[in-house]
C-alpha cells in the first residue's frame, strides 16, 4: 500500500486570497459605487503609502514592472546610442526595457552566492556611451549599492533599481527603491507584494523624474487632450490598488514569514548543497525566491517533480546568451559566474506561512537520490 503523498506547491496564492477576499470584495463594491475606476482614490492613497514605506518623496504607479523600467529610462532621457549596464542573471524584462527605449544593454557579471551585480565587473564595462546602471535586487537580495553608487558618481551615470523581486529588501537602514534615481517594482502576483493581476510602481526622490513619469504614463499629456510627447497608456488599476493597500498593511509580517522559511531551509540544507542563498553583509534579503545551488540540479528537479513538489529554474540561460541578443556577439564563457550559476541554481518553494512539514518534505526528497 502506498503512503499518502505530500505535494508541495511552488507557491500558494489561494490561502491568502481566502483570508483577504471579504475586504477586497468590499473595496471592489465601493469602487463600483464611486464610479472612479482609473486613477481614483485607491491609486492616489496607495502611491502615498508606498512613498512613505520606501522612504521617498514620490511614487508613480504604472501598469506593470516592465513599464516601470521603460518609463523610468525614458524619464531619465535614455535612448538610442546609449548603453545601460545590467545583470545577465534576471528576468528578461530588465534588459528588454533597455531595448524598448532604443538603448543597448551591456551585461556585467554577478556574485556567485547572491546573484547580484558584481561592481568590479560593472566598473570594467563603463564607456563614454554608458548612461545608466540597472542593479537588479534579484530573488529579494539587495545589490551592493554603496559600490554601485561610487561608480555612478565617478562617471555621472543614472541608477535605475530593478526592485521587481525585492519589495521590503534593504541596504543599511534604507529600503531598496530609495537608493537610485528611480526604483522599479512589479506587483505581479508571485512577487513579495503582489496584486491579483498586473501592476507596478516607480519610486523616486527626484521631482523632475516624478513629474515626467506622471506625463509618460498618461499618453504624454500635460492637460486633458494636450500632448507634449509620445507616452504610454500605463496606469495601475483602481481595483488592483485596493488589494495592494490591504496587503501593504501586513507586508512586514509577510516578509518575516518568508525569512522564517529561509531560516528553516538553511538549518536543513547547510553543508548539503553547493551554496545557500547568501544574506549579504550590506542589507536585508526579502526572499521572494529561495535559490540554492546543486551539483546534480536537473536530477534533483526531476525528483521533486516526480514527487509533486514545485520548483523553478531561475535562470536556465543568462540573458547575454539568449537568441534575442545574438547580434551583441557575446560568447559562452564571457560572463562565467552567471553562466555557471545557470547550470546549478534551483529555486525551491517559498511563501509566507509555508508549513514546516512541507519544508521537511522538500529537503527529504532533494536528497533521496
Ligand atoms: C527582475 C524582474 N524585473 C522586471 C520584471 C517585470 O515585471 P512585470 O512582470 O510586472 O512586468 C520582473 C517580473 O517578473 C522581474 O522579475
Kindly identify the CATH topology of the largest domain. Aspartate Aminotransferase, domain 2
What's the CATH H-level homologous superfamily of the largest domain? Type I PLP-dependent aspartate aminotransferase-like (Major domain)
Task: Please outline the major beta sheet.
Answer: 7 strands, mixed
Order of helices and strands: HHEHEHEHEHEEEEEHEEHHEEHHEH
Category by helix and strand content: alpha/beta
CATH class of the largest domain: Alpha Beta
| Helix content class | 25-40%
Q: In percent terms, what proportion of residues is strand?
A: 5-15%
Strand order of the largest sheet: 1-9-8-5-4-2-3
Radius of gyration: 21 Å
The separation of the N and C termini measures 22 Å
Shape: globular
How many domains make up the 3D coordinates? 2
How many beta-strand segments? Answer: 14
| Ligand types | pyridoxal-5'-phosphate
Could you list the spans in which at least 5 consecutive residues all have pLDDT below 50?
none
- By DSSP (H or I, 4+ residues per run), the number of helices equals 12
Proper CATH architecture of the largest domain: 3-Layer(aba) Sandwich
Mean pLDDT: 96
Walk me through this protein's architecture.
The protein has 369 residues and is of the alpha/beta class. It folds into two domains: 15-108 and 115-248, Aspartate Aminotransferase, domain 2 (3-Layer(aba) Sandwich), CATH 3.40.640.10; 251-366, Aspartate Aminotransferase, domain 1 (Alpha-Beta Complex), CATH 3.90.1150.10. Helix content is 38%, strand content 14%. It has helices spanning 14-34, 41-54, 65-75, 93-100, 119-124, 145-155, 207-216, 238-248, 251-269, 297-306, 336-344, 356-366, and strands at 58-62, 83-86, 104-107, 130-134, 158-162, 170-171, 174-175, 182-186, 200-204, 221-223, 226-227, 283-284, 290-293, 345-348. The chain has a seven-stranded mixed sheet, sandwiched between helices. Helix 4 (93-100) links the parallel strand 2 and strand 3. Helix 2 packs parallel to helix 8 (238-248), helix 3 packs across helix 7 and helix 9 (251-269) packs parallel to helix 12 (356-366).
